[in-house]
Design goal:
Number of helices: 4
Order of helices and strands: HHHH
Shape: globular
Largest sheet: none
Number of domains: 1
Distance between the termini: 27 Å
């Protein structure tokens, strides 16, 4: 439904030329949440020294490059809707210090 409204009102949080990349990265972000989580109790691959998933952070940085905070919030809402509030809160912390994102 949101995508339908975006197409009508032109309120997409990212440029149309980035649509495929954003959708691919969102799918990857959802898979990470499902398989690994965005946080760990211990550092070590695929988590950094702060126990944050390194690829999830890379995706967050790319979202920020493409569409700034607005795109990051959009992606976070999709994670929340598909994976639930617990994993969404883990993503919030995993993305801390990326652009204007605050956990």
């Amino acid at each position: 439904m949101f995508e339908f409204l975006e197409s009508i009102f032109g309120s997409s949080p990212y440029p149309s030329q980035n649509r495929e990349e954003v959708q691919r990265l969102l799918g990857e972000l959802l898979r990470i949440g499902t398989t690994d989580d965005y946080l760990s109790e211990r550092p070590g691959s695929p988590f950094n020294s702060q126990c944050r998933h390194t690829r999830a952070r890379e995706i967050g940085k790319r979202f920020h490059e493409i569409g700034g905070l607005r795109l990051m919030e959009w992606a976070h809402q999709r994670v929340r809707r598909k994976l639930g509030p617990a994993l969404a809160s883990h993503l919030e912390y995993a993305w801390a210090e990326i652009g204007e994102w605050m956990s």
